[in-house]
């Protein structure tokens, strides 16, 4: 089933749009099944689970960390993460930068954007994103690769499209405002329920879990 799901999704993805298979709550056997089909980018959101999988699964897997990251868990994530997609506070950004300085590593990150009225979401408002990027040079051990965002959890397609349009407009504005950020080229929007809509808004990455692996295993 995993192979079948992957094949069907990849048929619809345009070239240049990366598929991150969100493997959180799924066993290593499921990841290996996807891996054997050629999938290499996987996303996790719990530090302990992330670290356990990273050290036991093939070394050429590209690991993306997607969830809220507490600063006391950096050592579980940063040694293995190809991309941290969930920088949601200045405090976390400063801690990631400090870890990178101490460990001789430049950490690739996305800034998490918070839009809409859902108070439970983490991240920066569009104004805060622009303010943060104006100080990008302060973070010598961080490379800002782009933005990550989620549309409101709703069945209203118009509302989802409106959210994606806001994130896309912010992404374009940031690229225009800060041309010196040469690597700021990643827009991570779209999940299992709305990734096809995200394609209309210039996403470079979609994060798909349930539509590949089924419902959570544990």
User: How many angstroms separate the termini?
Assistant: 18 Å
What's the gyration radius in Å? 17 Å
The helicity comes to 25-40%
Determine the strand fraction and express it as a percent band.
15-25%
Please outline the helices and strands.
Blueprint: H1 2-12, E1 18-22, H2 28-36, E2 41-44, H3 47-56, E3 62-65, H4 74-77, E4 81-87, H5 90-103, E5 107-113, H6 126-133, E6 142-149, H7 157-177, E7 186-188, H8 195-198, E8 205-208, H9 210-213
Parallel strand pairs: 1-2, 1-8, 2-3, 3-4, 4-5, 5-6, 6-7
How does this structure look, described?
With about 220 residues, the chain is an alpha/beta fold. It has 9 helices and 8 strands. It has an 8-stranded parallel β-sheet. α6 packs parallel to α7. It is globular, with a radius of gyration of 17 Å. The chain starts with a helix and ends in a 5-residue tail after the last helix. The model has no long low-confidence stretch (mean pLDDT about 95).
Q: TL;DR of this structure?
A:
Helix content is 39%, strand content 19%. With 218 residues, it is an alpha/beta fold. It has an eight-stranded parallel beta sheet with strand order 7-6-5-4-3-2-1-8.
């Amino acid at each position: 089933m995993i192979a079948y799901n992957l094949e069907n999704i990849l048929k619809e993805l345009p070239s240049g749009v990366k598929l991150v298979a969100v493997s959180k709550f799924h066993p290593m056997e499921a990841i290996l099944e996807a891996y054997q089909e050629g999938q290499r980018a996987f996303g996790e959101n719990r530090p302990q689970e992330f670290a356990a999988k990273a050290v036991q699964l093939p070394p050429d897997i590209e690991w993306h960390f997607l969830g809220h990251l507490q600063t006391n868990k950096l050592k579980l994530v940063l040694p293995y993460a190809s991309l941290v997609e969930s920088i949601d506070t200045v405090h976390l950004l400063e801690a990631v930068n400090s870890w990178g300085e101490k460990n001789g590593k430049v950490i690739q990150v996305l800034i998490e954007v918070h839009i809409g009225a859902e108070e439970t979401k983490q991240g920066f408002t569009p104004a805060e994103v622009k303010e943060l990027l104006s100080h990008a040079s302060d973070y010598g051990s961080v490379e800002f690769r782009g933005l990550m965002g989620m549309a409101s959890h709703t069945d209203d397609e118009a509302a989802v499209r409106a959210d994606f349009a806001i994130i896309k407009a912010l992404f374009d504005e940031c690229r225009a405002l800060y041309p010196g950020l040469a690597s700021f080229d990643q827009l991570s929007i779209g999940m299992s329920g709305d990734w096809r809509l995200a394609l209309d808004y210039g996403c470079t990455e979609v994060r798909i879990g349930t539509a590949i692996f089924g419902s959570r295993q544990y």
